[in-house]
Amino acid sequence: MEAPVPTSPALSVVQVSKAFPTPEGGEVRALIEVSLDVADGSFTVLLGPSGCGKTTLLRCIAGLESPDDGQILLRGERIDQVPVWKRRVNTVFQSYALFPHMTVEQNIAFGLQMDRLAKAEITQRVGQALELVRLTDLGRRKPSQLSGGQQQRVALARALAKQPQVLLLDEPLSALDLKLRRGMQSELKRLQRETSITFILVTHDQGEAMAMGDQVAVFNAGRIVQLGSPEEVYTRPRTAFVADFIGEANLVPAGQRDGQIVIEGFGTIEPAALADPGASAAAQVTLAIRPENIHLDEDPDGPATVTEVTFTGGDIHVDVLLGPHPITARLPAHGVTPPRAGAQVRPRFLAGSVRVMADE
Amino acid sequence: MDGRGIDSRGMDGREVNRRHPAGSESDSESDWSRRVRPATPGQGTWLAGLPGILFLGLLVLAPLVIIVIYSFLSRAKFGVGVKWTFDITPYLDLLYSESLAGGRAFDPTYLQIILNSFWFSLITTVVCIVLSVPIAVWMATRPAAWRTALVFIVTIPFWTSLLIRTYAFVIILNDNGPINGSLQFLGIIGSPIGMLYTPFATVVGLVYSFLPFMILPIYASAERFDFRLAEAAYDLGANRWTVLRRIVVPAIRPGIFAGSLLVFIPALGSFLAPELLGGGKTSMIANVIAAQFGASRNWPFGAALSVLLLVISMLILVAFAVVARRARRQQGVNAWESLL
Asked: How are beta strands A215-220 and A223-228 bridged, if at all?
């Protein structure tokens, strides 16, 4: 027994691996030695493209899947061998999974009945949960009589009413339209702050991840490729994948010779523009440059040619060729006169904005 | 319907074939569209329904009408056939019988038999439900490839005649049959248990006959069940038994309901199981009816009993329909679609 650590994480995932058999007889490795610590009272987002393993990890934490290897600890105690119904962890499912033959109140009460609470307390907690998600007057309705957004809030209330140690959310906003989604993002942040419950949310929408998470875990092909705050993951992506997945990034192959970065057919990149010069010594690298960090000066002798200019409302996208490599620059719609298609330009990169990554 | 015998309105009421405005096409083309008009599916000429109507009329309606008519006639002199005199005695015989001293007194015999039949059908239905729910849920949770095979296996009993299958139980439940034999061999019992020719044997026979009719509708309901709901219930702290009781069973209620309909009503009128397996002690309505056309030689009375059975069955059907409609409105359409 070790002495209690003051800042022990609410949830720890330790080297969890999980593989699924395929119908062809092989197997797909959904999780490969994934480790993650989730701080108490934090909002963690598991982010990644479809099939990257983030939902599998969530289900392992919930208990709906069991890992082949590794451990999952809730406040220091192993839960990976504990059956689903005994874990103090609750899930908000992507499909909401509301019981159709029960009313909203009965749906919320169900979990509390499983805890064998007194009837009076159940009624009180159901009322509180409904208030929390602002659905107080809809208690008697059946799920089929609710809109998508309302159903989602009932699913939230149902899980929150049990006051779990960790709340898991599986792509809760994917079925909602854009406006509703934005609203619910702030709702979820508010709920998390008010209840101080540790939230772990799975999404493939990087905008959502950045808006809600205190900590973002970027998944790719069964592994966590980067873990950090939204700001960190955005401005200091560790791999080309992360740079591309979070926000927009132009990925350009380049060569490194004598400490100089050269794009074939275009030219050298000034050392001042590089994020961390000397970070990689590889001969072949990939450069990641965010569109908003590119300035275009009109110059008839410029080394780059504009191919297309697109007005997207808030800003203007300018497609430019650096030698044979196409990139997109984002210029504000006002204040700057955009170059015309076919014009020659000299691109300038904001200091420290070009990240050099070794080819994976 | 227009004169050409094919309605030009589609099923949603919109015009299926629009008339082309005058002059936009040559006459021969519009002639073609009038003569060879593709009909909407389900909108064929009424002639197509004629064979089915004739079949139903001749083979179902006509015999029923004959039975109803016979029930209002008199018993024939020597018992075979009927005497064409109007008589309501057959219906009186349901409740009253002539005592040896002459005169009529209330006789509960036939009411007792009807009650008996109800009781047997009810037990059969309940036993079928208890057996079918686990089987159907198990079937529905197998991989998709297995499920077709399992449904197929459930229907195998229908490949053999009911008479032979019921008679097989005479052999199985016999004092010298395999059950008694193996129990005695294992030393569990000393002398054979008399299972045959008892109410127990009748129920066994009835359950065996009707089990597939309960399994398949419940399976159909269970198959449509969204097992993510079970996951959500587990997540909220329910163990396996609670999930089954509070989430799965309510969801497959339509299937249980449909199955009950398909078991209870036919069981009420079943003949073979009580006849072959029940012995003299278990008579159900159908046995009594059969006797009237056989040994008892009272055709009109047999017809009256048949009419009674028909009326009872129809009342039960109506009751089921009322309950189904109420549940439909409460639970929403989807859950009860399979009932139709």
From this structure: antiparallel
